[in-house]
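Here is my example:
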Amino acid sequence: MGKSLLLGPLILFCCFKVLSGSLREKANIDDEMVFSEDNSGEKVVQCRMCHLQFPGEKCTRGRGRCMATPEEACTVGKIFTRDGSLWLTFMGCLKNCANVRNIPWSIYLVSFKCCRGYNLCNENL
């Protein structure tokens, strides 16, 4: 695969990381389910985080959890090739998250799914 095909998704990942503002890895990533509240009393949700996961593989970069602030949501982003094959998945916290499907981006289609209902809700999206 050419360098130009890999450069586009890397730029998208950088934008995703910058826009989210809360991709903080935690040292302790056990599976406890804990809701906490911020100073205003709103529930803060833990989200699964993975910056880079190819189909059939485990997370290769940015594995952990992030804490979604009240204006953020847990998200799963998927990049598909034009023929519909899954090419890449990434997860984390994202501000102003919106559910979108098959947005054209260069030679790829990008989809985002968002949730806030419970801790780690983006694991099964």
About this structure: The first helix runs from residue 3 to 20.
